[in-house]
Amino acid sequence: MVWFNNHASWGSANYEVQKLFMNNVGDQVVPSTATTTPNVSGPITGAVGLSTWNTSAAYDDVKVTDADGNTLLTDDFSGDAAQWTHSGGGSWAVQDGQYVETSDTAENTMVQVGDTGCHDYDLHVKAVKKSGKEGFLVAFGVKDTGTYYWWNIGGWNNTQTAVEQAVDGGKSTLIAKPGSVETGRVYDIGIKVRGRQVTLYLDGQEWGSFTDDKPAEPFRQVVTEDKKTGDLIVKVVNAQSAAARTTLDLGGAKVAGKARVTTLAAAPGAVNTETSTVVAPVTSTFTGVSDRFTYTFPANSITFLRIRQK
Predict the structure, then answer these.
(1) How many other CB atoms sit within 10 Å of the CB of residue 117?
(2) In CATH, which superfamily holds the domain spanning 47-211?
């Protein structure tokens, strides 16, 4: 982020930007937490999961095998679903030999199964969309409710298929293509995990692959209190090349529901000159503030949120 690291040399054309930094220092650090930069050492490990988003879907014939083809787990839902853990919203039930999420309005309905230390495996599952706005979410590398990967097939109102990575509740997109799901059609979904390499198969054809081994640029946040105004100042640097949807926990602070937002975002190599100000602050208002809230920070950005305390 050249434009951030070299902000002191921007000159008089950037006085407003320099003033922005000086006016948002704060007087005292307030305890808070937020999504951290993902760790990319070692293989991708975690359980597997199924989910939906504003969609009712049925899953069947789940099978996980190791790299040698040995079966680690299997479920055809001819009995109950006792081995699955429901950690999200929605409502799941075994119906006619399938595991069905019955609500087409619930979001993030994750159920999971398996060992969170599992690695180097193949996941196969069949899925059918019953109703709703989107398609299927098949998860792997599941650590907990906020840290996982999932293949979002027919997401974004059934217009795009992508792999998303969630870390402490904040999501980023690793690979994406246009794609949709037909209601009532059976889809055969396969995910092959080897080390940090993932290959994805849809109806027996390779859909795409990626290797999650690139150290991410830092995502850093700090919350301070301005004693003069009583405001909390949330300062976030997202030096990653993708937007970061992140949950911020203000530690139970009693705050107003609205924040004044100032954002600086530009390409990593952008530099302001006396005749061109390519990096300039943009102000807006965000109305979803609480003591724990979610916000999407743009790629290659610095964001200041001023939040009034009650």
Answers:
(1) 9
(2) Exo-inulinase; domain 1 (2.60.120.560)
